[in-house]
Amino acid sequence: MKSALKVLVISLLLATSTSALAQTNMPQVTSTQGKLLGEYSSRNQRVAVFKGIPYAAPPTGMARWAPPKPAPGWSGERLANEFGPDCMQQPYAEGSFFYRPARVSSEDCLYLNVWSTGNDTAGKPVMVWFHGGALTRGSGAIDTYDGTELALKDVVLVTVNYRLGVFGYFAHPALIAESEHFSAGNYGILDQIQALRWVQENIAAFGGDPSNVTIFGESAGAWSVHFLTASPLADGLFHKAIAQSGARLDTRVELDRQTSAGASASAAGAQFAERIGAPDLTALRAMPARQLLDAAADNSFRTDGIVDGWVLTEQPFTRFSEGRQSRVPILVGFNSEEGTTLGAGSNLPGTPEAYEERVNGIYGDLADMMLEIYPPADIRKSSLDSFRDVTFGWHMVTWANLTRHVDQPAYLYFFTHRPPGPTAQELGAYHAAEIAYAFNTVHTLRNQPSAIDYRLGDVMSDYWVSFARTGVPVAAGQPEWKPYTNAERNYLLIGPQVSAEVNLLPDNWSVIDRIMDRRR
After folding, report:
1. Spatial contact of 156 and 206, defined as CB atoms under 8 Å apart
2. Looking at the predicted structure, is the pLDDT value of residue 5 above 60?
3. With CB atoms 3.0 to 4.6 Å apart as the test, which of 154, 163, 374, 500 could cross-link to 479 if both were Cys?
4. What would the pLDDT profile of 356-391 be if each residue is shown by its tens digit?
5. Confidence of residue 121 (pLDDT cuts 50, 70, 90)
6. 35-37 and 28-30: which strand pairing?
7. Contact (CB, 8 A) for 65 and 175
8. What pTM does this model have?
9. Which tens digit of pLDDT belongs to each residue from 493-508?
């Protein structure tokens, strides 16, 4: 018995000492909330990673559809070596190009992650990434967004989860009534703003410079960057912006009046609540999260970026046209085959006549102009190119153009490199293809990358990091990337070879300008 007790005591002592030793080998940071114990990146031990840091209190119960509040602190040490849950979302279907195995999702999801080589050198530039996914899916924990390689280029990288879908972008008359700002619907944007406030208060402990913060994102993450540059609530929380394939310069839904974008957000929210049998806000907040998520999917309920008079005070196009956006340098662009993974290349008209009929149905008396730019001679190419330009290209070029109103430089790119794989020819430079190159994580591509892919990842991430550091994108041994202006429409062509070019598709934008004017 004594022998067994002795073994138990020795085992406990060994376990305790091993645990203590493990903790001494963990990177440690003391934030305003308390002490964090992270881990070292499996890809490079120079990089410390802190995962699952709460930046806001859980938006559950009565906090569902409320502006986020700062996360409470803790006593002692908090392990920060696992990602927090994803925000509530429906996973992509297994056949989707963007399918990934589902992670745990929860309403308690307002966490962020930090990669840094430490605080040995104070004042590193900070890059804050907002993921894509149509504001209905996505996560800051995706392997392509691993910040190790960017941290090795001496920036501090932050990825953020924010409320999605019906949890992040839902308006209702009762929510407006309870708001001191008479606002509702932009909770996902408010989460992002709260994350940027957390960065201002805490990032110096990780070696970052809170006065040199760049926000960046792709697709809906780029929409988010665009909304943040439009929101007066975010002004001063960041100093540069990068948007990859996404902006919202078309007419947005408004909170309390119908526009060409559709019914008011509050009316749509009230109609949705009635359909699912929720008589009031109490019932809506009491509904289990999964049930609410499924109900939104079943009813095709979806909104984003609502002009609510507080978070977004006016239509973004108006705000940018009149120089009321954030006064920051921008770097924006899009890919040459955005539509191949978004369905634009499927269900195509079978004949030139059917294609012309479709274009006439969409564009009316402007159809002839569209057919001249996107002719029926090659239906697939014209369909993909018109989808790309109306959905992405025009927004990015117009945003670059409108930046002149705040007297800040704008840098435009066009990404044409085809990632490797048996479908490279068919997919081309598809939507989101550039992300792995911007993060220099080409090892996460679906197919074995080549030397060209690795080189391009190094070059593209150099440009991105340089812009974050100084506001000017530079890569050693590569072409000079000149700002885009009305007089000199410079852009960078990012393909297997990188080149400085001018005047990207000017005839396309002149036609789409007229279409967007008509829609407004």
Report:
1. yes
2. no
3. 500
4. 999 999 999 999 999 999 999 999 999 999 999 999
5. low
6. antiparallel
7. yes
8. 0.94
9. 999 999 999 999 999 9
**Short-list 422, 421, 492, 420, CA closest to 462:** 492
Return the domain boundaries, the chain.
Answer: 24-328, 333-410+418-520
Q: 3-state secondary structure string, 455-485? A: HHHHHHHHHHHHHHHHCCCCCCCCCCCCCEC
Distance, CA of 218 to CA of 225 (rounded, Å): 9
Place of tokens 């974050």: 468
Q: For residue 400, give the nearest of 194, 507, 241, 166 by alpha carbon.
A: 241
Neighbouring CB atoms inside 10 A of 459's CB total: 19
Active site residues: 219, 338, 431
Task: Encode burial over 360-399: b for 16+ CB neighbours within 10 A, e otherwise.
Answer: eeebeebbebbbebbebeebeebbbbbbbbbbbbbbbbbb
pLDDT 10s digits, 415-466: 999 999 999 999 999 999 999 999 999 999 999 999 999 999 999 999 999 9
Distance of CA 120 to the CA centre of its chain: 29
Assess contact for 397 and 390: CB atoms under 8 A. no
Distances (CA, A) of 392 to 219, 431, 496, 512: 9, 10, 22, 11
Q: Which fold has domain 333-410+418-520?
A: Rossmann fold (3.40.50)
**CATH architecture of structural domain 24-328:** 3-Layer(aba) Sandwich (3.40)
Distance CA 202, CA 208 (A): 9
Task: Give pLDDT tens digits for 178-193.
Answer: 999 999 999 999 999 9
